[in-house]
Amino acid sequence: MAGRAESAARSPAAPTAGPTLRQQAEAVLDVQAEPTPGQLAAMSPEQTQRMLHELGVHQIELEMQNEELRRAQAELSAARARYFDLYDLAPVGYCTLDEQGQIRQANLTAASMLGVAVSALRGKLLTAFICKEDQDVYYLHRKQRMEAGRTHACELRLARQDGTLAWVHLATTAGHDADGAPELRVVLTDVTEHKQVEAALRESMRQLQTLSRRVLEAQETERHRVALELHDELGQALTAIKINLQVGQLFQKQTAGELNAENIRIVDEALQQMRRLAYALRPSMLDDLGLAPALRWMAEQTAARSGLRVDFDAGPPQPRLAPEIEIAVFRIAQEALTNIVRHAQARHVQMSLHRDGEGLVLRVQDDGLGFDPAAVRVRALAGGSLGLLGMEERAMLIGGQLLIESAPGQGCTLRLRCPARGRAELP
Question: Which fold has domain 93-190?
Fold first, then answer.
């Protein structure tokens, strides 16, 4: 009996062995002869006491083992809960597919990517959520991914439930489930924002190339114009003076005073033409007086030449700004007024320059015909006018933002906001 109690005490030591351990214990019990009532009656008090002690120890051991089992089960449940939390709340989507590509299991992130519930994904083919144009990409990926031990990846678009598309990086590893059946483990990483940044960068590069080409063309056009101005205006003025001097020497038909007066008139016209050329190349007033006076002078000149009413408001005097900011703001305002005169058919223009916190704000508003900014930008990118892209490029170079609000028949408002960095802040 003592041997049976010891055997019984040893048998629960490995509860994870399950039925195998029970079968071993029953086999041991079968070969041992059970004590008869007579044998039990013949046991001495010491033997009875020993057997009761062994049974008590065995009972305590069983209770301790049961407690250990309960603790192990609690830890297992907690670990399983942590696993599911990590699985469901992972920043990437997880899917398990069978050989036919049906989704066996998916986490919450994968379901969120597609805008459907997890239960709606189970049993569905992954191809049902792949954009039609990217089915071939997934087909080629699927041909490679069955090679066990290797991870294959591709990028494709998934169709969300709301009809929008999400770019994902899809990585697949082949393996087997607990029963040995083949399965595919798929990791989905949302790269939509990355793709949008790439597209924006490509568009910026295309705009930069277009702008650079147009800048070179504009430079050559300006050089050609300046050359013609020098030849046609200054060259003719100097030629007229030379002729006057030669005529005075040869024919003496005009008095010296008359010839000098004519020459002075020609020289004055040449000087005015030279000033116009110099101002077009670099406004001296901007260097001498600052941005606000230069803009006021430009507004007055534009009104005098075009007949427009141009109102300018600069508020109280402000400290001088960094040269690159002053010239960029001046050129943007100059381009805006030029476009209004050429295209807007406006009658009234309001231009203002003021500080807004740490920023500088230029605003130019007209009551002209208006236009579609998106259509103008498309024409500019196709090689049309440089004006809009040039203003945007100047604003970007000084860390500013250019906003144009317009619509056909509703005039136009240009608003530039840029840092108001002073000259004292230059390195």
Answer: Beta-Lactamase (3.30.450)
CB 156 within 8 A of CB 178: no
| 391 touches 402 (CB < 8 A) | yes
Query: Which three-class secondary structure string do you get for the chain?
Result: CHHHHHHHHHHHHCHHHCHHHHHHHHHHHHHCCCCCHHHHHHCCHHHHHHHHHHHHHHHHHHHHHHHHHHHHHHHHHHHHHHHHHHHHCCCCEEEEECCCCEEEEECHHHHHHHCCCHHHHCCCEHHHHECHHHHHHHHHHHHHHCCCCCEEEEEEEEECCCCCEEEEEEEEEEEECCCCCEEEEEEEEECHHHHHHHHHHHHHHHHHHHHHHHHHHHHHHHHHHHHHHHHHHHHHHHHHHHHHHHHHHHCCCCCHHHHHHHHHHHHHHHHHHHHHHHHHHCCHHHHHHCHHHHHHHHHHHHHHHHCCEEEEECCCCCCCECHHHHHHHHHHHHHHHHHHHHHHCCCEEEEEEEEECCEEEEEEEECCCCCCHHHHHHHHHCCCCCHHHHHHHHHHHCCCEEEEEECCCCCEEEEEEEECCEHHHCC
The first and second tokens of residue 379, run together, are 């024409």
What gap in Å lies between CA 290 and CA 292, rounded to an integer?
6
Percent of the chain with pLDDT over 90: 17
Phi and psi (nearest 5°) for 52? -65, -40
Beta sheet of 401-406, edge-to-edge order = 309-313, 348-356, 359-366, 412-419, 401-406
Cβ contact 369:408 at 8 Å: yes
350: left (phi over 0), alpha (psi -120 to 50) or beta: beta
269 neighbors 263 (Cβ within 8 angstroms) = no
- For the chain, what are the domain ranges? 2-87, 93-190, 194-281, 283-427
Query: Which two three-digit tokens encode residue 43?
Result: 């046991």
What whole-number distance in Å separates Cα of residue 8 and Cα of residue 58? 8
CA dihedral 240, 242, 248, 249 (to 10 degrees): -160
Total-model pTM:
0.47
pLDDT digits (tens, 9 = 90+) for 280-302: 666 777 888 889 999 999 999 89
Which CATH number is associated with domain 283-427? 3.30.565.10
Straight-line distance from the first to the last Cα atom of the chain, in angstroms, rounded to the nearest whole number: 99
Q: What is the pLDDT of residues 46-67, one digit of tens each?
A: 877 887 777 777 788 788 888 8
